[in-house]
Structure formats: C-alpha cells, structure tokens
C-alpha cells in the first residue's frame, strides 16, 4: 500500500469515536436486564446474539473481528427495530495451547537460559538434519502444501520466546508467561480493551474467562457434565482417537497445529507370511539374525478393499525404503514402516503401549523376491516385487496387488513382465512374475470381470509412469466397482461389493489372517509439534453416534435458520457421520470431570451451552473476568449446587434446599427464561463440523422436552483474506484488531468489514477500500455540517417537483431494500443499498434539481442516512445525530419508516439519466471529424440546438413482433419459446417480410431486456409520459449538454427515417448549429475578477437567454438574477471611452426583459427590438453583477 500523506481525517474520526465511546460508557448504553416480570408470552421482543468466545493466547486479529462484526451489525439493526438486545462476550482459556506455550517457554529457559541464547540458524539446521528416533518420526504430508492457520499465524519464529517478542513483550515480561495462569491475567483484559475501541455493543458485565480459575463457570460446566452423564450421553471405554504421544492424551481439533477435522481411517491389515524357499539375501540379512529365529514373520499391508484380496497376484515393496521388523504382543514379527509401527504400538499390537520392540531395520531390497502365503488368493504362493512409487506417509509401505481391479497394479505388473532388465536389477526370477495373471473376482457393469486391464487398454496406458491416465482409470473403476460391482468368488457369489466388505473383513480377522488397523486420514500435528497417531484409548466420550440423540439433533436442525443452503448441507453431512467424541484429557487447562478428577474436560466440550451462562453471569460475577470477587447477589460458588443450577435452567425444577434467598434465585431464573434461546450464533464455517454441531447436540440433550430453548439460527461465514491473500504473520500480511483501528479508525474498519463479503465463500478485507471508507465518512460528516450551516439557502415550500418526488421515492425504496438485507444478515448488500446507493441518490438529486434542493428532503435524507448506516458505523452516526440536535442516542432511535415508493416514477428518472447519457454519447459522435482521405479533416462546429423525438408507440414491424412475444409469454407462463419457433412465426407475417433482417436482432434484444427488467419490456407503450419527463428536465439536459436549446417533439411529426429509428423509451435526436453573430461582453466593475468575454447572439434571443449563456461561460457568476445587461447609448464611441470609477452605468442603457435580439448575418450586425423600436447595439454589451 502507498504511504498516506497525512492522517488529519483519520484523527478527526478517531476523536469522534473516543468521545462517543465515553458517552456510551457513561450511559451504560448496552447493559440490559430482563424485565422484572416475564410472562410465558412468545413475543418477548428480545434479541440474543453470541459469537464463539475467542482463545486467549494472543491479541484478537482481523479474522476474529470479521466474524464478530456480523453479531455487532445484527445487534445495531435489531435495536433500531425496537428489540431489547443482548450481545455478551466470553473469553476462552480451556485446552492445550496456553499450557503448551507456557511449557515451551519453560523448556527454552531450561535449555538456553533466561533470557535464552538460542543457537544460530546453521546449528539449528544441523540439528534438524540429524535422524530422528523412532519416537519422533515426522512424515511430511506432501498433499498439504499450504501452512495451517496456526502455523501461518505464528509467523516464521521457531521459538516460543521469539513469538512472544513479536507481540512487543520485553524479556522480563516474557518470563512470567512460563506460568500458564499469567496468560489468563494478561490477554483477556487486552481483548476487552481492543473490542471497546471497536465500539462493540457488548454488555461487559456478563464477560468471563473459562477454566477452574473461574469458580462460578467451573461449577456451571460440572453441572452440565453431571447432567449429561445422568442422561447417559457420556460413556467410558476404549475408543480409537487421534492421539499425541508427546502430550500423552487425545488431540482434538482445537489442540492441533495442522490437521483440523481429520479423523481416524480404518484399514484391514493383511498378514502375508514369509515362507520357504527363502531368498539368499533374506536368509543372510534377516532370517538368521538373532530375534528372528523360530518366529513367524509377516509382511503386513494396509488395505481399504479387503473384498479384493481374492485377486492377489503378488505384493509390492519399495526397494530403497527403510522398514522395521518388530515383535508383536503375540510373539510374531511384523515388517512395516516405522511410522505405521508407531501407530500400531498405540493400538494393542505390541506388549507395551506406545513402545515398538524393533528387532532390526531392513531395506526393501532385502525382502524382494520373498515367497508369501497370502489370505484368500487362489495362488498358493505369491512374491514380493518392486514398486518405486510407494509413499511412506500412508499405510505400511507394503502394498497388496490386485491387477484385476486396480489400474496401478496391472500397469506395474505389465511393466515388470515386459522389462527383463528391471527383473534382473532386483534379483526377481521369471517364475516369480511370468506365471501370474489377473484373477476375475468382481463383475462391473460396462467393464466386465477384469475392469483394470480393460480400462488401461482403453486409455492406452503404457507404464506405471502414466500418472494422469492412471488417476483417470482409478476414478472410472473404483467408485463404480464399489457401488455397482457384483462378487464372482465362492461364498459371496452374486452379492454386491459394498454389502460384503465388512463380512469379508470380519471373516479374515476371526481366522487370524488380518487385523483392524487405524491411522489418521492425513497428517495431524499437535500444538506441541508432535506427529499424532491413532490410539486405542481408555476415555470418557460423548456418544454423538447414539441414534436417538442424533435424531433429536436433526430435529433441531430442521427448525434452525442457516441463512444459506451450503451451511445447512454442511450440518446435515456432519450429523450423518458424527460418532463418539472424546471429551476428556489429562493435559492442559479446564474443568475437572466431576466424577473422575484425573481427567480434564476438553475445549470443544465445555463450550456448547455456555450461552446459557451468559444470561446470569452478571449476577454471579458482575464483570470480574475470573469470578474471584464477591458476587453482586452475595452468592458463593460453593452454593451453586446441582439443584440450584437445575432450578435456574429447568423451569419445572422445584425450589432447592439452599440458603440463597428465593428472590435472588428467581431473579437468576427470570434472566435465563427471558433471554433464552439464542436468536443467532455467528461463527466461521470451519466450526460447523465440530463446535456448532456439538452446540446443537448439547442443547437437545440438556433441554430435550423444551424445544423453545434450542438454537434459533446459525450464521456461518467464510475466512477473511487480507488484500486478496491469506492472512499470515510470516508474510507480514496480518492485522490485529488494535492495528486495524489505529490504521483505519473503528468506523472505517467496520465499513470495510461489512464490505468484505457476506456468503460462506472467503471474504476480502481490502485496505484501499478501508482508506476510501475514511474519506467517504469524513466527506459525509463535512457535507452534513455544510447543509446545517446553509439550511436557510435551501428551497422551501411544497416539495413537489419531478426530482423532489423521485428523491423521496428513492429514499423510501432504499430503506425497504436495506431493511431486507439487514434481516438476512447480508451486510455487504445493506451497505450497498443503505449507504453507497443512498448517497448516489442524493448526488443525483443535487445534480438534477436545477431549481435547488428542498430543505425538508435534505434533512430527511440526513436523518434516514444516519439510521441506515448506524449498525455499521455507529460512532459517526451518533455524532451526526447530535449535529441534528437529537438528544437521545442513535442506539435508542427507531428504524426509519418508509413512505410510499412510486416505482414508475423511479423508472422514469432512470430513463432520464439513461437518455442524458445517450445524448452525451451521440453528441460526442457528432463532434468527431468526418471519415475522409483528405489530410486532417476539420471536426464539425459544436451544435447549439437539439431536437429530441419521442415515440408514443413502436414502428409497425416492432409492434407486430412484440405482440407475438407478449402472447407467447402469457401462454407459456412467463417464458418464451426457442428462437427457431419465433422466427418461423414472425416470417409468416406478411407485414414483416421486408424487415426480417432486423426482426431477430430486435427479438434477441427484447429477450435480454426481459431477463434484466421483467415482463414490462413486452408492453406496447411506456408506463410514463416520456415527453413530460424530458420537458420537466429540459434545463438540466440543456446545461448538461452545453446547448442553447432543446426541443422535444413526437416522432409522428418527423420524417420516415426518424419514425423507423424511434421507439418508446429510446428517443431519437438531431443536433444542429443555429447561425450567430459574436459580440463582446465587458464588465467595468473594479476588483471583482469578472473579465470581458465573447458570446454568440442568435436570432430571437432575449435578455435572459444572453445572461444564461454568459453564466455558462463565466462560472464565477452564481446567481443569474443579480446580473444586469446594458447597451451603450453610443454603440460606436461608447466602448472606446474610459469608464469612470463609481459611475459604471454612465452612458449606458439597461436592456429590458421584453427586448428581442435580431441578427444580420451578411453584415455581422445585431439590433435590439424594444417597444417597436429597433436599435443597433454595435459589437459590445456591458454586464454588471450586483
């Protein structure tokens, strides 16, 4: 971005914002309590909006701000609609990130001192290059090229200390952050400060932080979990979960640096026993080594298609890949990659959980050619063959080969069969390859029983290196095979593939030929920089897979307003696949599980119904974030028993045994009953698959019989780009909330946030737009001040001119349109109709109202504009409201009422603007020099006059075509037939024969306009009087085109060409230059900057027409009525005399309004006719400005 030249306008807006925020603070403008009596009435006229509390491990940034701005704008609008609004704001501290960062700082101080002296980059690189131990294998997922959100935001710093320094903290301050609780004291107050600077309409009395540091919130979460357990929603057992070995606990979405949303992927682990005859290499390097003797040795391959194992012809191993042989719990030896062995060790495959007892490391080339006994295949022995494309980041590094149904396998098998040199290179004998042919196991409609060879032949795949073609082949075969394939093998013959997958897997597992194996779908890195595995863990989990609970969540979704179909589809997909969710962990911050205190409740589980806590937080905590000061109602945390919480949140619960006064408990219940349910929750779309779905589940679990407490609406938005690029500290493309306010002001930033985007697609905050916003807002306030100062110069009396009526109608239409956009939470659109287009309507009025703008309309406009913009830019609107003399705050004002909208009048005004534009283009074309071969042809003289022809009806051929189209449109219920049908019908009409070349282009134009403007384009006449509109705006048109005169005539009075080219709504114009004689106009008044000028005098001109012409030439003359036109008594000698100071009128006579100028072109003379006398005026006239 270019550097700003100055910040005066920005400073001006910031000063207004600071003053307005102080005023709101004093008035407690956003603090609202429930009425003292609440009926059971459904129409409580309240609006409760929430935003997922942000995580307190840093300053709030523009991404947070974009999402929460939707809440902010909604509250501003709903308050204007007369609703009592509540926008509370909590601050989240539960989970791993804070603890992980604090522990990282501790480690850095232990290793490198305080303040730490880190190794330089070269040493670091050497460290990185050292081979990692098997416990720290980090596999780079090549599919994930882009940095995750967490990585992008932490910048390029590898050390936590450096990250803290980048936040502007000194070494002395950073030391304190090694204690996790310090984060809870430091960042939450900064978040509150930044949000207050933004001017959010938050009731700060209801704010709090999470974790057991806050005794009231801790008690609330304990109550929630006790209730869920009572209702059998929480269970205990061994479950597969994404797990961080370094942290020693499950790694949920919010604990991840990369891999958000990734779950465990189930594979069938196929056991292929290495049997005799052993290869020489295998014998010497593997079989005879200590630890292997007497043991069964298996190559293990992970497959997603156990039903295809009947077709195995070989298995694939990568020659240069490192494998490990490790002992399993049963005493067998498995050969796989280290990464997969590490996963298996957390799934009960080894004797000790998380420990891989490695016997030896093996290179793939050492096991090539091994004979294998594989389950289900019709071949008694198959062999391990080389494949160079096996990846290390998925599966076990050993791959089963089913060439009948896998394009990759048939391509590789054909390669090794064709290439003897390849076989010799890896010591593969002919008997290991040549006898093996694909085995038909599945019949696929259209592809037969050997689908992979068929498709590879069709696509002319030559080798396993034809990657693009192989990808296409897989796409064709795999899905069709799974969903439409029919099994051909004994025991499963005639059954669908998708129906036998699980039974075949179960059969192999029961026979000991296979095992269930899990690994993450993609690489997952925890925030402690550990590559996660899938572990079989003892854990407490929320059983989101429970059929009855899932059904209830779907019921809640049916009545949920999602504002767009994509959000609804995301919810439906999530509820369909969601199963168990581990809600407990051992590391981090949070609330302890009340019945098993070794466990902490994780961050996605303590944040599902806390919106209910907002309703009463102010009465328990009174705005003290950690809840550690006396409660406003004198309640102590230990008094908040399960029965007390039940009484507050369940209206059928009896009054509990407690020493809390009844009046206080009833007040708490009243607050909850009044504010609940949440009317809208705003969030990023990435929270739909986790937090927002859990939000639905937990509400139906806690209030199963009271659907009036269930969420009403969820508004999901996309991520925020900054200047069309992903926000990232490492690239410098990043803004915190406080930086954005300093750079653009609060209202300038809010304007750009509203303009950034509305849908679930990624939005874009553009800094140049924010800068332009500062200018727009500043200009708007200055214009309001100017109007207030000059109000006595504005027109008064009846506001009934054409442009007055249009402006009033456009204001009313703008209000209605903006209201619809605010209702749908479409703030970009609301800003467009309620500010940009609203301002454009005012600018148009100012331009067209030649007679002057009407005072009442201008002040109505200022008032309405202030209210339409108030939800988005409240500070400036509060200030503007004050300038208008309003004593009540704009936050307590009412949404403007829209008067009648005359759509036809608005369209007639649009017609006027389009006609003026068209006339300007035609005038420009008229002024172009004629196309000529002669050098430098002269352009025509500027015309002085114009005749505009308007048509009452279409020319006959167009009339016939339109009539036919109108008939079809009615009979086809709002659509037109194909052009061929129209052309044949029109061709049959005798009156159109000679116009057929022009008819179809005309039809095409009408069709296009029909899509844009609706059925009125088929009308045979205009809905307004075209001539009357032009006549009423003749002065504007004449001035706009800088012409002397415009005449408006009906096309029926013109020649045939004009009649042909003129139709309703498309006037025709003819420009011409009237002859003239040039005279000088002099001004003898001293020191006024008004100079001599030359103007043309035409036959029949009046005094006023000359004055008007003079004012066009001399822009310093603002008021025509103050100009006095005079002639010399002596037209020859008068101009030669020196004027006498103070006696400017000496020797001159005034020209009356009844005088008419006549011209003699031959003699270049001008005479003046007045009262029957004709006098020669010479070549000079005098003008005086009073």
TrEMBL record:
InterPro entries: aa-tRNA-synth_I_CS, aa-tRNA-synth_Ia, LARS1_ULD, Leu-tRNA-synth_Ia_arc/euk, M/V/L/I-tRNA-synth_anticd-bd, RBD_LARS1, Rossmann-like_a/b/a_fold, tRNAsynth_Ia_anticodon-bd
GO BP terms: leucyl-tRNA aminoacylation
EC number: 6.1.1.4
Leucine--tRNA ligase RagD-binding domain span: 950-1023
Residue ranges of domain Leucine--tRNA ligase ubiquitin-like in the record: 1074-1185
CDD domains, A to Z: Anticodon_Ia_Leu_AEc, LeuRS_core
Domain annotation Methionyl/Valyl/Leucyl/Isoleucyl-tRNA synthetase anticodon-binding: ranges: 804-916
UniProt keyword Thylakoid, yes or no: no
Region (Disordered): 112-135
Function: Aminoacyl-tRNA synthetase that catalyzes the specific attachment of leucine to its cognate tRNA (tRNA(Leu)). It performs tRNA aminoacylation in a two-step reaction: Leu is initially activated by ATP to form a leucyl-adenylate (Leu-AMP) intermediate; then the leucyl moiety is transferred to the acceptor 3' end of the tRNA to yield leucyl-tRNA. To improve the fidelity of catalytic reactions, it is also able to hydrolyze misactivated aminoacyl-adenylate intermediates (pre-transfer editing) and mischarged aminoacyl-tRNAs (post-transfer editing).
Identification of the protein by name: Leucine--tRNA ligase, cytoplasmic
Lineage of producing organism: Eukaryota, Metazoa, Chordata, Craniata, Vertebrata
